[in-house]
Specification:
heterodimer; A: alpha/beta; D-Maltodextrin-Binding Protein, domain 2; six-stranded mixed sheet; 13 helices; globular; B: mainly alpha; MetI-like fold; 2 domains; 21 helices
């Protein structure tokens, strides 16, 4: 009995190593999980269908659980295209020589971070961040994801730059909510007094009527910086045929389905280049997120 | 009473936990935690089983990953158990089991990516270390008498199979079945880092406040575990084990170059990679130790000690729930259900839920660890008290509890508690991924910043800390002459 079982176990464990087969040439892309998953899946399934139609190859979107997982999947060539934030894009392109930022949203040329506060904190909106030093000091604060540009990099930069202190020293409690929608919900509920998030998420939720404006308000807006972009690996032409990168770029730039654009939300896509994101790289190096 | 070493040890640990509380970050930061908790329970009683098309697939994958991972771990662990006497093997096993499944998953994700192998190995490797230890303990306890009755010249293999195995078979089978239950829990939480198991959908529904969806997933998970005796049958096992590999999902193909890159570049400390040599390594290591490892270790220890004592208190409060010395059958059945739910919910999921509801601090982690582990120990102790025969004129109520039962089971209670010390610490470290500043927080931050060299050093630190606590726990158990039985 025992021997029999052991034999079966051994045979089946061999199976498990060989049973997994590689899929054929499917063009796979991912995106940083910066918002609620349902929204992401809906948005990017639409993009997958659109790209598949335009490019005439199988296109698959895989959802991931963290910004780093998106970067790793891109780096490991398990995905060939990704919708990155400013920082994750810089990280990814550093790790994959030859990869390129090919398109960004119209809004991403001049992106902003909003600092928001629960109205319980009685913090009044200000035009200059330095005016907020006294009201903000000692409050609880949440970033978005650890790898986010608008939810982490930029707000951390401005806190350090303006108040001359690390966020964890300036605020009484610093958290990482995980994504922008959650930052909004946590500050709205008062779990954190203050938070920082992607301005597009705020504006969209606001226009959809999903924000209790009696509970939470914007207290400061950062100056503009470049953010989200589509980044593609350099070796896609070799794998999917000459001119493939160009075709992907054109398909993205020509995307004009209003529903799909609305889901991002972006008014359209425009060309981008790696150099556009130099300011992000410098900021990340300055605060020590990038070596 | 103070002269009793078990009481003294308990008081010392209680004192440590109380001092720890002074330094710990214990708070409810959510502005309306009870409303959220109410919404959550409302979600549990109004489950929505048709929320996600992927739910059934996720459940199937959860089972498949558990079967394949536990089977591989079991075979490897059995082979290791045969050579467990050798010190290097023991050290190797202690090391691989000191690293939590989620950390293994995070490591494999970096080079295997979303391939089923990531999930399978994340379960199989630490489980192999645990199986090796427990199997070897079981084999050691086997009665040597039958072996002496064999005729001279009997081969080692035959002797082993015909004298040792039959004596150990039942214990090994029981333990393996128990491990399979643990495997289901491990498999479920792997979803939190992106594998296609239950945790994936649970995290998604929870973070969006879809409590009815989350409630349905939890209920399905409890049913899955509670009905294990019905569907895990010896005769069906080969079918499950042979079939499971085909239900892991296709994932994404492995690119082998990534494996090589991970080991030859990614985890090489940055100063060495950049050619600064050993001169650059010292400041790099110092920075890592002072700014990340030290605060991580401190928080991990503080949280572990508080959670350990809280677990003890919950266990002592919970065991009467199922003990047949108290209450009628109706109350006892309700007690069983409560304890099954407490121990079937992985502490990671419990902590995640409580963190969402109460806001970030050590409190949700303490409560989660204490509920889960207290549920397990309470169940074991409760069962033990049921076999105690009391005199017909024995006192009842509180007197029975305090003067008859607790003193009788106190030693095995402590044995279980110290046995789980290391397990609690391993979990504590992992809970950092959820945002509590234990070692896992810094490991996760390093991974989020794509600095695997730092992540590996911190995982190594975590493993050493676990091995240290495991050794200390064993020392205390030996010192107090506490007998132990292996538990999850």
């Amino acid at each position: 009995m025992a021997l029999n079982l052991i034999r079966k176990l051994v045979v089946s464990s061999l199976f498990c190593v060989t049973a997994v087969t590689a899929s054929a040439e499917t063009f796979v892309f991912t995106a940083i999980p910066d918002e609620d998953e349902t929204k992401l899946v809906e948005r990017f399934r639409g993009v997958a269908d659109y790209l598949s139609e335009q490019l005439d190859v199988d296109v698959r979107y895989i959802p991931v659980k963290s910004y780093a997982a998106a970067v790793s999947a891109f780096r490991n060539n398990q995905v060939q295209l990704a919708w990155f934030g400013g920082l994750s894009g810089v990280q990814a392109r550093r790790l994959v020589p030859g990869s390129e930022a090919i398109a960004q949203g119209v809004e991403d040329e001049a992106f902003e971070t909003y600092f928001i506060a629960n109205t319980n904190t009685a913090i009044e909106p200000a035009a200059k961040f330095s005016d907020l030093e006294t009201p903000l000091k000692g409050k609880t604060f949440t970033f978005g994801s650890k790898g986010s540009t608008s939810g982490r990099l930029m707000p951390e930069f401005y806190v350090r730059d303006t108040f001359g202190a690390k966020p964890e020293d300036f605020f009484s409690r610093v958290g990482f909510s995980g994504n922008h929608t959650r930052t909004l919900r946590l500050v709205e509920a008062g779990t954190y007094g203050v938070g920082a998030l992607n301005f597009q998420v705020w504006e969209k939720e606001l226009s959809d009527g999903n924000i209790d404006t009696d509970a939470v308000q914007v207290i400061w807006k950062t100056p503009a910086y470049p953010d989200y972009q589509w980044t593609i690996r350099g070796d896609v032409d070799k794998r999917f045929g000459e001119g493939f990168k160009q075709r992907v770029t054109e398909a993205l730039l020509n995307l004009d389905n209003p529903e799909l654009l609305e889901s991002f939300p972006r008014s359209g896509f425009i060309p981008a280049s790696n150099d556009d994101y130099e300011p992000i790289r410098k900021t990340a190096e300055e605060i020590g997120i990038l070596d | 009473m103070l002269s009793s070493p078990t009481v003294r040890t308990s008081l010392i640990f209680l004192a440590i936990a109380l001092v720890g509380l002074l330094f710990a970050d214990i708070a409810i930061t959510a502005s309306n935690p009870w409303r959220d908790l109410g919404n959550f329970f409302l979600g549990i009683v109004t489950p929505n089983f048709f929320s996600s098309e992927g739910l059934m697939t996720a459940l199937l994958r959860t089972v498949a990953f558990a079967f394949v991972g536990v089977a591989l771990g079991g075979v490897a662990g059995f082979l290791l158990a045969l050579v467990y006497r050798s010190l290097p093997v023991r050290m190797f096993c202690a090391f691989i089991r000191a690293i939590h499944e989620l950390f293994w998953a995070l490591i494999f994700l970096q080079f295997f990516g979303f391939h089923p192998l990531t999930g399978v190995l994340a379960i199989a490797i630490p489980y192999a270390g645990i199986f090796a230890k427990v199997y070897s303990e079981i084999l050691e306890e086997a009665d040597p008498e039958p072996g002496r009755a064999l005729p001279p010249g009997t081969g080692i293999v035959s002797a082993f199979l015909y004298t040792r195995i039959p004596d150990c078979w039942v214990k090994m089978r029981t333990y393996t079945a128990y491990r399979l239950e643990c495997g289901l829990r491990s498999s479920a939480i792997l979803g939190f880092v992106g594998l296609p198991t239950l945790g994936f959908y649970l995290e998604a529904s929870f973070s969006q406040g879809l409590y009815s969806d989350a409630g349905a997933m939890l209920i399905l998970f409890y049913i899955l575990i509670a009905t294990m005796p019905l569907w895990v049958r010896p005769k069906l096992l080969p079918v499950y084990i042979l079939g499971a590999p085909f239900f892991l999902g296709e994932g994404l193909p492995i690119v082998w170059g990534n494996v090589q890159r991970f080991f030859t570049e990614d985890i090489v400390p940055a100063p060495l990679r950049n050619g600064e040599g050993l001169a650059g390594l010292t400041p790099w290591l110092n920075d890592l130790m002072i700014n990340e490892a030290m605060p991580g270790i401190w928080n991990t220890i503080v949280l572990t000690q508080i959670a350990l004592v809280a677990t003890g208190i919950i266990s002592l409060l919970a065991f009467p729930l199922i003990s047949n010395h108290f209450g009628g059958p109706l109350r006892r059945n309700a007690g069983h259900v409560a304890l099954v739910i407490a121990r079937s919910t992985p502490e990671y999921i419990l902590a995640y839920i409580l963190l969402q509801l109460w806001g970030p601090s050590m409190l949700p982690a303490v409560v989660a660890l204490a509920l889960h582990n207290g549920g397990i120990i309470g169940h074991l102790i409760g069962r033990q008290t049921s076999s105690i025969k009391l005199r017909p004129d024995a006192p009842s109520g509180l007197n029975r509890y305090g003067w008859e039962l607790v003193p009788r089971v106190y030693r095995s209670f402590l044995a279980f508690l110290f046995y789980r010390w290391e397990i609690i610490m391993r979990e504590t470290a992992i809970l950092g991924i959820l945002g509590i500043y234990t070692l896992g927080f810094y490991v996760d931050s390093a991974i989020q910043n794509i600095r695997f060299d730092r992540a590996m050093v911190l995982i190594l630190v975590t493993a050493l800390l676990n091995i240290g606590v495991d050794t200390l726990g064993r020392y205390i158990r030996r010192k107090l002459a506490l007998q132990t039985m292996p538990t999850c």
